[in-house]
Amino acid sequence: MDAENPVDEATRTALHHSQVIDLTTTGRRTGQQRRIEIFLHDEDGLLFITGLPRADRTRDWIHNIGTDPRVVVHLKQPVVADVPATARVITDPEERRPLIEAAAKRWGRTDVANMLQHSPLIVLTVNGDSSDRPVRRVASSDSIESQIQHRDPMLVADDAVNQSSALGCGFRRLAQHLV
């Protein structure tokens, strides 16, 4: 990592491997950091996040990004890093179609029309020169012990809770089979 390119090669490679990540947005009303677990897609070098279709409401993280597009992508394995990025909500049907189709294919879904209409979709641009939120390469191991040596203890505790609570989650199991 250097000042001109704060994302090292290992982090860049890890970013461009579809996987489960954590995403931090800034709450539109509170201004507090909000962290969720979600699936990051890579399609021909383009990073994007989508979700299952939901016609009844727009998810909070989409509202948050609409107010403040600055986000942090938290890679969890095999490289652990906090990567600042800028998110852009995609609403144009023609721009949405190839990304939604790629996600549907990856997830084995056949309801592309429903996903096009009701799934959230953002495209991420990694901030290559963000000085206020530098990339923090934490560890290249999954062990909590090695993370404690390099990370804020509260973040380690949050990750441990997220990982342990997610073990029973069908989404995490599904995502592991998709990568």
Q: What is this entry, summarized?
A:
It contains 7 helices and 7 strands, in the order H-E-E-E-H-E-E-H-H-E-E-H-H-H.
List the helices and strands and how they pair.
Layout: H1 9-15, E1 19-26, E2 33-43, E3 46-50, H2 60-67, E4 70-75, E5 80-89, H3 93-107, H4 112-118, E6 121-126, E7 136-139, H5 144-150, H6 153-166, H7 170-178
Antiparallel strand pairs: 1-2, 1-4, 2-3, 3-6, 4-5, 5-6, 5-7
Structural class: alpha+beta
Q: What does the largest sheet look like?
A: 6 strands, antiparallel, barrel
- Tally of helical segments: 7
| The first-level CATH class name | Mainly Beta
| Strand order within the widest beta sheet | 1-2-3-6-5-4
Mean of all residue-level pLDDT scores: 77
CATH homologous superfamily classification: Electron Transport, Fmn-binding Protein, Chain A
Could you walk me through the main structural features you see in this protein, from its secondary elements to its overall organization?
The protein is α+β, with helices and mostly antiparallel strands and 179 residues long. It has one domain (9-142): Roll (Pnp Oxidase, Chain A), CATH 2.30.110. The protein is 37% helix and 28% strand. It has helices at 9-15, 60-67, 93-107, 112-118, 144-150, 153-166, 170-178; strands at residues 19-26, 33-43, 46-50, 70-75, 80-89, 121-126, 136-139. It has a 6-stranded antiparallel barrel with strand order 1-2-3-6-5-4, surrounded by 4 helices. β1 (19-26) and β2 form a beta hairpin. α3 crosses α4.
